[in-house]
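Before the break, one more example. Copy the sequence into your notebook; we will annotate it together after we see the structure.
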Amino acid sequence: MATDPSPPAVSDPLGSIKVAVAVIAVILTAFALWALRHVLTPFILAVFLFLMIGGLERVLARRTPLPAATRLPVALGSVLTLVALSVWLIGDNGAHIVAESGSYVARLDALLKMGAARLGVQAAPSIDQLFHQINPGHYIAVFASAVGDIAEKGVLVLIYLGFLLASRAGFATKMDELFETGRNAEAFVVMARIQAGVEGYIFLQTVVGLLVAAGSAVIMSAMGLTHVLFWTFLIFVGNYIPVIGVAIAVMIPTLFGLIELDAAWKAVVIFIAMEVIHFVAAHVILPRMQGDRLNMDPLVVLLSLTFWGVIFGVAGAFLSTPLTVMVMAVCAELPGARGIAVLLSADGKPFPNPTRT
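Here is what the structure looks like once it is written out:
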């Protein structure tokens, strides 16, 4: 008995138009973010600090007997203290490095003469000659402008953070009034996913960063490098920039090792040992800890670093993964955009048990 042929697949005549509209929407959104980067960057940093404070507050609730009324002040004070210590560490060590610049110049001159002799160059240029050729006045003006911009954005971040903390008490009520009955639960699911993703990323990078920084500090101290605490701090902070952060942070103490240390092989040992520590932490320890905390494709991590770095600069590089986690959480909840979340995820399942069935 012949069976009825299966019905022909129904094509969507507007399919190509929908794809084109989606691509145009993404491009326009990216352009709008880039155009508003000076306004949005401090706010995004404030939101990141806000999530850090909230996560620390929940850790205090689970692990300590502190009363509920004291958890937020303790969490806020801890985060702001860490920020203040970071600023002090950068300023103090920067001043010491500038004060020791004379000895660095003499060592660099000696290295230039040594390199010129091995290459057969008769007259090697000195550091002073190279310094005057690159027009230092221009770069000093650019540096001063950058410092002023960072200070201005820092003040805005603190202002935004204060208003976020002040307004969070009425957040649940606003969500209930903003969405229809039954849909506010979906909005809370999205927020919970964003919160869990960002906090999981911070936890993982902090633990791995501490491991890499501690191992690097031991190596630098054993080789006799100065300003070990400062270089350790840079390596720890660089760990929050995916892929390239630690690689760049490791290069800086290596270059100073060539200048400070009495033998070039010590700087080479510092570089190789710290790269080995970073490789083991990033490719052995991190995958074992990660589990399902951050279900993101490695290629997406690299592309998000480029994308958010172009839009928001250094702040975008630091926050590239948390921002992509936010995008994936929102897209996973929207039927029309869930495919984007699937592409961003590592295993094709961005979040288990989506709220819409």
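The mean pLDDT is 77. The chain has 15 helices and no strands. Try to locate both features in your own notes.
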